[in-house]
């Protein structure tokens, strides 16, 4: 009799623990779902706002929008706080969420000064194309491009093929802008992207502008004195061939 009672007690304890585990699992799942669906009201740029512009002078350039909480940048501003007396510390583009790092007093605006003989030029890169958050002002990067190239075929016809190749090497990064929503027509692939500003010469500007207009750009962050060489472009025909 005692053994049966003991078995019954153990069975009840096991059943209770199982029920408790199910309850905790459901609560955790609901908590994760609530966190994933949480949204915030934020200020979004509706029209381009040049650096140094007072927000009071361009009231129609900002609008209130709802965004997923886990998709907004750090320091996002509450629309209720207002921007009285504040200016844009850098050029803001349509779709960009306004956050604390891009807002300040008029005295905080500084000019971007590229090195002598070079230009400062900005290009949009999704996170996967810019080494995530590891590219920062002072970094040196190389830019690879994937574009559609044309070549004469064996019978004289024109053949097109996607080609990936090193476009520009050893560019100095001057600034990395905050995340903005870039449309697919921009050449940056669409979605959330950051504006990366380089110090470039005229030829590099021209190549980067055209490559982003017709293809996709990728940044590569290398260590000191990387062994850079101009290899043959990679296409579908030589994708699996060794390159080094």
Automatic annotation (TrEMBL):
Pfam families noted in UniProt: RcpC, SAF
Q: Where is the SAF domain?
A: 40-104
Q: Which InterPro entries match?
A: Pilus_assmbl_Flp-typ_CpaB, RcpC_dom, SAF
Q: What is this protein called?
A: Flp pilus assembly protein CpaB
Say which species the protein is native to. Answer: Aquipuribacter nitratireducens
Q: Which gene encodes it?
A: cpaB
């Amino acid at each position: 009799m005692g053994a049966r009672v003991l078995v019954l007690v153990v069975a009840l304890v096991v059943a209770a623990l199982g029920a408790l585990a199910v309850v905790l699992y459901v609560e955790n799942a609901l908590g994760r779902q609530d966190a994933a669906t949480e949204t915030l009201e934020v200020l979004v740029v509706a029209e381009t706002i040049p650096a140094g512009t007072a927000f009071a002078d361009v009231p129609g350039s900002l609008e209130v929008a709802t965004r997923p909480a886990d998709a907004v940048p750090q320091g996002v501003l509450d629309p209720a706080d207002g921007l009285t007396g504040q200016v844009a510390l850098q050029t803001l583009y349509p779709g960009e969420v306004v956050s604390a790092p891009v807002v300040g007093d008029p005295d905080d605006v500084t000019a971007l000064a590229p090195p002598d003989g070079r230009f400062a030029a900005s290009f949009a890169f999704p996170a996967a194309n810019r080494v995530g958050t590891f590219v920062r002002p002072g970094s040196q990067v190389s830019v690879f491009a994937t574009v559609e190239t044309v070549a004469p075929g064996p019978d004289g016809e024109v053949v097109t093929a996607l080609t990936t190749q090193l476009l520009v090497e050893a560019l100095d990064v001057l600034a990395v802008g905050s995340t903005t929503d870039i449309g697919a027509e921009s050449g940056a692939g669409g979605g959330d992207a950051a504006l990366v500003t380089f110090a470039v010469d005229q030829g590099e500007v021209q190549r980067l502008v055209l490559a982003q207009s017709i293809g996709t750009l990728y940044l590569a962050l290398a260590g000191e004195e990387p062994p850079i060489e101009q290899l043959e472009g990679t296409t579908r025909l030589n994708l699996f061939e060794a390159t080094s």
